[in-house]
What we know:
Layout lengths: L3 H19 L7 H6 L8 E6 H5 L2 H13 L5 H17 L6 E8 L15 E7 L5 H14 L4 E8 L2 E8 L10 H8 L1 E4 L6 E6 H13 L7 H7 L8 E5 L3 H12 L5 H11 L1 E10 L3 E9 L2 H26 L6 H4 L1 E5 L2 E8 L1 H21 L15
Antiparallel strand pairs: 1-2, 1-8, 2-3, 3-7, 4-5, 5-6, 6-7, 8-9, 9-10, 10-12, 11-12
Amino acid sequence: MKSLLARLVGNRLALAALCLALGCPAANDLQSALQAVRVPGSDLELVSNAAQSRNAEFTRQVKALQKEMEQEMDAEALAMGKKVEELLKNIGITEESLDHLFASLSIRGINTENDTPAIPALIAFILKEPVAAAKIIENVTKFANDEGAQIQLTESAHQGVPMIAVVFDPDNLPEDLPPEGAEFFSGLVLALPAGGRVVYVGQTEQVKAGIDRMLAGTATPRSEGLNVAKALVPAAADSYLIFDMPDQFRQMMGFQAQNAAGNPMLAGPMTALAGLKGAAFSNVTTDKASMALAGDFETPENAMQIKMALDMMTSMMKMQLMNMAAGTPMPILDTMKTTNEGTKATFAFDLTVQDIRSFLSLAQRVQQQQRGAMPGGPAPAPGGIPAP
Length: 388
């Protein structure tokens, strides 16, 4: 009697052979669509777990502050925001719909020689419920027409996956969209793999390549630098951006370090950055947003150089904010810190809703002072966003 393992392997091989013989469709499911997002040569990767951060206390507090601030917002901007929200709702996308966001970019692969730069990048939105191409076209076209912009959405398909492209009327462009902007956006497409549960966005060539990877069941592996950067991300993070420095950036840092030999305060950090193995910016959302910028460097000495530079930057930033705050509470100032362990250096801080209130208050104060300094302008007045 065959072992269980032998039977399982045999059955899988038989199924694979049968699929090849009958021409079974390639993978077009959620997992395959996500695995195909990373572009070849990727050195920048963004991941956001919207479902996780949406339920955090900090997110709820920020929403409450946004609601409170509506009366302070520009009426026209607020009205447009409401219209866009209604548009998305009509398409089938609500605040609760987005589960994850993935984005991949190859900085080293960008080609600026064309009239429209070729950007190897792909963005993927993962939704709880599928969306349909026909619904997107119908509602976006109506929205644009209602706003006085003449655009045309065209539907096509690549290997059976629906794709949507936008075409602008060059004689009737939106007021804030220059011709070169219209040309760039016309080169972008939206695709709906995994039955509309995933939305790909990118330049046409990149979206098609992502679909090809998905159907072939292939995934671009992370580079060594991205793997190093990913190791710097806390396990509890609900969003992160990881970075693998391209060679041209290293060369630029090395060149600047050589030309700053007379300034050790600049040469040391530049030399250290030229040896950056990977970097990560991460966020853990609880009742606050705990953010960290971390890097892994070639030597402990390089990491110490970066920590010293971060210490100086942090001290200057604290002094400037304290002077600007003029008594306004800023909890963030007490949480800014730098650490150094082996070849790693980190700058971290916690952002609270009170900090956001304080920053908004500072921004209003600066605007009032600028208006007061203008001839005929009103005199500056104290004010801000009061704490509850």
